[in-house]
């Protein structure tokens, strides 16, 4: 009788240990291959994202799909940490900005996420300094295959493709689309936002 109780208790402990190991294993797999948290550092994506916003990065998005214009992505930067920026141009596209207007392959492209910033500009201010892809690191005519061109939404305070060049797609960690902290900023982020 006492031995049965002892075995039952031992089996209970083994069941708990198995359950915990399974939970940790699943959490590790989810974190490693599907989703990961990231904390926004700095003002480069303001006003879309704020410094210290905490987000979930969908690592699976580019395993099963391709990046799209205006996706907000996390990528391994040439420095020690990951960056978070917005995809502006895709492989095979020419990018330029003139008088605060984005041009892809010579055609004007609306950036609705910048409307509020553009409305608040004084006549003497510039949101994005003029540039063409040829003037930037790499001296490309078009974004090369397997790469994307990224910019921060806070164009005057962002280290992005204007300084670091185009980003290889294999450096993309995933798409950031959900802010979960702070509570008053919880929301999904759309492409045009």
From TrEMBL:
Transmembrane feature ranges: 20-40
Pfam families this protein is in? Peptidase_S26
Q: Which family does it belong to?
A: Belongs to the peptidase S26 family.
Q: Which top EC class applies here? A: hydrolase
InterPro entries cross-referenced by the UniProt entry: LexA/Signal_pep-like_sf, Pept_S26A_signal_pept_1, Pept_S26A_signal_pept_1_CS, Pept_S26A_signal_pept_1_Lys-AS, Peptidase_S26
Enzyme Commission number(s): 3.4.21.89
Q: Give all residue intervals belonging to the Peptidase S26 domain.
A: 13-181
Does Magnesium show up as a keyword for this record? no
**Reaction(s) this enzyme catalyzes, per UniProt:** Cleavage of hydrophobic, N-terminal signal or leader sequences from secreted and periplasmic proteins
Q: What is this protein called?
A: Signal peptidase I
Q: Where in the cell is it found?
A: Cell membrane; Membrane
Q: What is the lineage of its organism?
A: Bacteria, Bacillati, Bacillota, Bacilli, Bacillales
Instruction: Tell me the PANTHER family matching this sequence.
Output: CHLOROPLAST PROCESSING PEPTIDASE (PTHR43390:SF1), SIGNAL PEPTIDASE I (PTHR43390)
Question: What's the domain of life for this entry?
Answer: Bacteria
Q: Which UniProt keywords apply?
A: Hydrolase, Membrane, Protease, Transmembrane, Transmembrane helix
Membrane topology per the entry is: Single-pass type II membrane protein
Q: Does Zinc appear among the keywords?
A: no
Main location per the UniProt record:
membrane
